[in-house]
Design goal:
alpha/beta; seven-stranded mixed beta sheet; 6 helices; 7 strands
Length: 210
């Protein structure tokens, strides 16, 4: 498995990620507030998800190939399963608490990798989307942080949905701001049980992404 991941990482560094950066540069004018973490810092990128473009923009901004979590429905054929896993993607069954995916993600974090997650639980627009969202986020990022010991990096990307407009790709580049928040560490407070720690981290993440 680790040899397979090394091959995927090499493909990402030499081919896929450079293409993502060139593609993003065609349609988006990226401005960063804060800086992405160094490549040797293991962390969980917790990003908003209003379109299919936030993952691509996040990959373009990262200093190291990001691993990611994606719904298991995307792995519907042997070819897609092979390609997605080669691109460092971990399948997650959202219909249950997928401990297999969580353990694999935690193992990669302990190996020093950075993982991209979307705590809204999928593409969200309108009142239920960040930064307007009031209900709690999906607790996967907080759980993964507690399981691995890796901190959470809140990331908010604006104007991703403009990537659906043809004019974005034909001379009208969109100004897109990528906000990097302060790292959130999964350290429990005194007299705090595990559930309270997860709830607190999840609430802090929600506030950081608003």
């Amino acid at each position: 498995m680790r040899r397979f991941l090394r091959i995927g990482r090499a493909l990402r560094i030499g081919f896929v990620d450079p293409i993502c950066r060139r593609l993003v540069a065609i349609g988006f004018r990226i401005e960063m507030h804060g800086t992405p973490p160094p490549r040797d810092v293991s962390c969980i990128w917790a990003c908003n998800h209003s379109s299919h473009w936030e993952p691509v923009i996040a990959l373009a901004c990262a200093r190291t190939p990001l691993h990611s979590l994606a719904m298991v429905e995307l792995f519907c054929t042997p070819l897609r399963r092979f390609l997605l896993k080669l691109m460092l993607t971990i399948p997650v069954d959202r219909s249950r608490n997928d401990s297999t995916a969580a353990r694999e993600a935690a193992r990669r974090l302990r190996d020093g990798q950075q993982i991209l997650v979307f705590p809204e639980g999928g593409i969200r627009i309108g009142a239920n989307a960040l930064p307007y969202r009031k209900e709690p986020l999906i607790p996967g990022a907080a759980y993964l942080a507690a399981l691995s010991g890796a901190p959470i990096l809140p990331v908010y990307i604006t104007n991703g949905r403009h990537g659906y407009q043809l004019r974005t790709w034909f001379g009208q580049r969109v100004r897109t701001t990528v906000y990097f928040g302060e790292m959130l560490y999964p350290t429990p407070l005194p007299d705090e049980n595990r559930k309270q720690t997860l709830d607190r981290i999840n609430h802090e993440l929600l506030e950081s992404l608003r």
